[in-house]
């Protein structure tokens, strides 16, 4: 059955900017999004920042006919903000919550409360198994002084791990979402090189949308132009990525983005531009051996050396994060110790008049209690911070360990060491028995 | 190549009970464990409760010759306690942290601080790809009144999800660890039915160990016999599970456990018994179509009805957990509101003499500050608890949503609705195109 079956799939992705009371015209925009999705009837709709479950339920009702299958991924305090709507039956879902996602005390950035994650849904599209991923990584608030960079790199690392390990049985893989990374950013290179995922904007045969595929543009009325500096025209941080398998070839037929406005509407759908990609999947048959080899082979085999460089770069970034987290934990410990010392000092000062049986002036009672309350507040806060930074350190160390292992494994590959491939069975005597 | 290659693998699993200062003879026991592992030379060693990284490093040095490859999984505040040592190269590792894992304020139980997780390592054993999992679920402190049951059920649910979705490319799957569940417990049935994993104790051709395969036994000198009641002889909560694939048949040749003591040693390795299983893997070739069908088919297809019952039971348990978490969050909110009311009342009482310009007796200053400090402490604590319970609720709701989806999907299967199988391509017109 060579190239007999061709299936076409339209994928939509949008960061909905659904923060009630903070995002402008939230309800009206959701109504607009619902109308458009109902009309456009994309096969797969991947939404981010649907922070309120009520909005998800609103869309679910609105799209009941066009997209009968949907899933809302719950995580963190507010939720993950991730939702998927599909024309095709969703057979299974799975959520991976990133181990690092900002700091709870940076409440004005809010990322920590969102419980950023990657959601997976397994669909059956025309008899093919499609693993569809939707994700939203930690925002970049300052490009020059990006204190969240190690967190975002670890998120990208975990994302590529999750996609690689869970897509073993898939015929096609589709990933959409707001990666909060420019096309050549470290995390993006890590993700694409490791997984072999292809960028629909770069691969498309036909493109209609913003210049350079930008998805956060100066023309969008919801955008504060100052925040885009030094990228005056805008940045590209939203993506639809895809790859096929040994059985299915996938190509991007066309791709489009909105352009900062919606015809006949007073404002755009969101502060981000919406992405639509049309993917064409063609099944083909291969001989058993070739298929085995292809399916087990790392898609990145061809550029292992480049991958070693990227992982090494990521490891350096994680080490910077480790250094920062260690310093923060040290600071928290030091302040905690100072709080404890202050409490001891206070108790000692208060004890002196008591021991001197009234010959000394007593410690003013009000000041005593106020100071004690301050000390306890310092101790409680620093204790919580210590626990939080310890967890951050463990996650960073874990990622660094995995990266070291990965570099080692890749270097073995470069040296020509045979890696896990089932066809090795025939070439080599069984290791297990030999070593018993 | 029918039944040409046979590889044998010896797998070891032990909960090391490595809590320094609390566990008895911790250092001596690690030395004993190291000596034994060095001598026995198992192919794969799966350890749990290695809480201190120093102990892992001690074992790593000791096993440098016998087990040159190892990985320590970091997570949570203390760590996940999970470690793997292997004679075969570890190509990749991945960690999934369970979304629910007890409560931080239950510090005497300590599970929350451990960051319970499932660690995966991909090995190449005699040319076969082995996905090896090591895990440790939340402990059961009281069987009659087990407030952690919903958490453990969600952990088992996430574990089966993780194993199923990540083992797509594996030739064999091995899972070892302390599941903290009896053989017929809900979580255990959920895990085994969904993944198709087989219990080496039940499958073994030859067994040498404790009666009924018990792994927490009354004869072990570290065990408090009162805690085992009503299971006087002990319980079986540690497992080595395995399954093959469409290409490899796996069988358990022999299995053994320690029996509460170690010959020529003053005490056993741990409060748990150690498990050793010898697995025999035989590669075989199948026709392409049969392989495709087997690899894509759910191992549980045969007993879908049973699976529906199990998932429904699990869903009920998760709903109980949801109800509890909602009640706890409501209690926290109520106490918080009471703290706020108390603060307002205090401020009002203090304001009266001030407004009456000295005609009323003033609020004693010390009492004022003490009461205010108490109010703030209540507000801060209930705020943190509110956030924690909200996160718990989100995770429970997420699991419940997935379970509802799973039951729906299984029921469709029962009704004979065609599920995702690549060979459907030939039988049906491509859905995607028809719906465009």
From TrEMBL, chains A, B:
The chain crosses the membrane at residues 335-356, 368-389. The keyword Membrane applies. It is found in: Membrane. The keyword Metal-binding applies. Pathway: Sphingolipid metabolism; Lipid metabolism; sphingolipid metabolism. One of its GO terms (cellular component) is membrane. Belongs to the neutral sphingomyelinase family. This is Sphingomyelin phosphodiesterase 2.
């Amino acid at each position: 059955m060579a190239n007999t079956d061709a299936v076409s799939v339209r994928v939509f992705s949008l960061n909905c900017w659904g923060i009630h009371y903070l995002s402008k015209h939230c309800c009206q925009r959701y109504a607009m999004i619902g109308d458009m999705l109902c009309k456009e009837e994309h096969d797969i709709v991947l939404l981010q920042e649907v922070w309120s479950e009520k909005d998800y339920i609103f869309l679910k009702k609105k799209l009941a006919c066009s997209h009968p299958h949907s899933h809302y991924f719950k995580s963190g305090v507010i939720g993950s903000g991730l939702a998927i709507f599909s024309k095709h039956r969703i057979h299974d879902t799975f959520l991976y919550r990133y181990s690092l996602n900002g700091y709870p005390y940076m409440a004005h950035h809010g990322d920590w409360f969102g419980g950023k994650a990657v959601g997976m849904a397994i669909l059956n599209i025309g008899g093919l198994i499609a693993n569809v991923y939707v994700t939203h990584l930690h925002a970049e608030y300052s490009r020059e002084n990006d204190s969240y960079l190690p967190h975002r790199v670890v998120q990208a690392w975990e994302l590529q791990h999750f996609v690689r390990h869970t897509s073993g049985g898939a015929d096609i893989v589709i990933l959409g979402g707001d990666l909060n990374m420019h096309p050549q950013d470290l995390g993006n290179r890590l993700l694409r090189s490791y997984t072999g995922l292809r960028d629909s904007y770069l691969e498309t045969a036909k493109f209609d949308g913003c210049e350079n595929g930008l998805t956060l543009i100066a023309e969008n009325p919801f955008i504060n132009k100052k925040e885009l500096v030094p990228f005056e025209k805008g940045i590209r941080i939203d993506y639809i990525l895809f790859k096929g398998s040994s059985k299915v070839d996938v190509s991007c037929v066309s791709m489009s983005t909105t352009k900062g406005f919606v015809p006949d509407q007073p404002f755009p759908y969101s502060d981000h531009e919406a992405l639509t990609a049309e993917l064409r999947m063609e099944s083909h048959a291969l001989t058993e051996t070739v298929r085995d080899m292809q399916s087990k082979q790392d898609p990145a085999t061809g550029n292992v050396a480049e991958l070693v460089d990227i992982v090494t770069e990521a490891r350096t970034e994680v080490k910077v994060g480790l250094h920062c987290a260690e310093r923060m934990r040290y600071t928290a410990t030091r302040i905690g110790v100072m709080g404890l010392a202050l409490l001891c000092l206070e108790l000692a000062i208060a004890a002196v008049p008591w021991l001197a049986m009234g010959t000394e002036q007593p410690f003013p009672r009000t000041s005593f209690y106020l100071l004690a309350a301050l000390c306890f507040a310092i101790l409680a806060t620093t204790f919580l911070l210590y626990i939080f930074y310890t967890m951050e350190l463990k996650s960073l160390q874990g990622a660094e360990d995995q990266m070291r292992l990965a570099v080692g494994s890749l270097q073995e590959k470069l040296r020509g060491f045979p890696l896990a491939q089932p066809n090795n069975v025939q070439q080599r005597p069984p290791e297990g028995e030999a070593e018993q």
